[in-house]
Amino acid sequence: MTAAPTQRPFLCYAVKAGGGRSLVVRAAAGPGQLAGVLRKERLTVLRAYPLPRVFTPETKLALKDQAILNEQLHALLSRGVPLVEALEVVAGTVTSVARPVVSTIREQVANGMSFAEACAKSGVLDQVTVAIYRAAERSGDLAGAAKQLATSQRRTLLVSGRAQSLLIYPFVLMIVTTFVALVLLIGVLPTIGTRLMDMAEGVALPIYSRVLIGVGLFLREHIVIFLGLFAAGVVALVLARQQVRVWVLGMGRRLPIIRDVTLAAESARFFTVMSAMSKSGVPLAEGLVTANQVVSHPLLRKQLENLRAKLVAGGLLRQLIENVTAMPLATRRLLLAAERAGDLDNAFLTLAIDMTEEVEKGSARLLAFLQPALIVILSGVVGTLLMAILVPILTISSRIGGGG
To answer: Which of 67, 176, 387, 397 has its CA 20 to 30 A from that of 298?
Structure first.
């Protein structure tokens, strides 16, 4: 859930309660609300500057903060600590960003609101988490639900960490390749190329050398325009990052090596949520409504939604699960066996763990493939630019040697 339309981001120069200054970005409807938001973080605003709405900070609570929150809640509630007191303790253990959120939830619970409703009203927790809290309050096992959520969130963090590791390596190598290529193309190639053309009397340079030298000279002469277009491209990517993310995920689902890792990651999230929902006593059909929200794989989500709709209409899971062809055959067989034995709770947990391990193994295999592939690409780009210099030098040297 993002900031309300009436809110806008502010760049705030504030004083910390313990001394010192801090520069933060916070969203608020106006200066009065902004002062209240910062006061909850024990900050006193000195100056505030409105920013364009694109800089609105993310209002969702980070997954790491949610994991800490649920771990602390489980530890305290399972030992008989009342919820209001548990939330007061948790507010002192989470990060400074999460602290005002937890404090607000504690105040609302102390005033008689249910914990799930207070979390929903805060707007910083996703619908899946709120639904699990609501089911846990009905069953009277909020401590158990907090434990399940903490486990699932740690597992999701592990999967996300693997995905980030896969993206960081090619991203860094792409930046290095671009930087080296631009230095060679704009800085080195035109300088050496013009001297070679002056020296190469009667010697025709290779066509690709002439083309690259010409491109380098053009970019050098129009460097300001080039840098402006480059900066505009970077800004456009930042503004359209959601569309870029969707496109990258869509491409990943089509590539032979990446699609298996992507499907395993989607399945791991789905079974993690289903495990938490079933442990909280949520019926299967109701749990599917919530769990399907974490699935972004188009085919898998469509098949799971069809399964839920037919299940509500009176269908049998043992017959409907066969239609979810996006899942591996072994996964469907395990679910069928668990459904017959009445042990779906443990099956969901086992599959969540297995899929997480599959993501780790698949990520390691993919990274092992990407490393040499990207090095070859880097070598090809840099090598092409270097050959545009070396071939003319060798040609001229052979002519001079032969003439001598």
So the answer is: 67
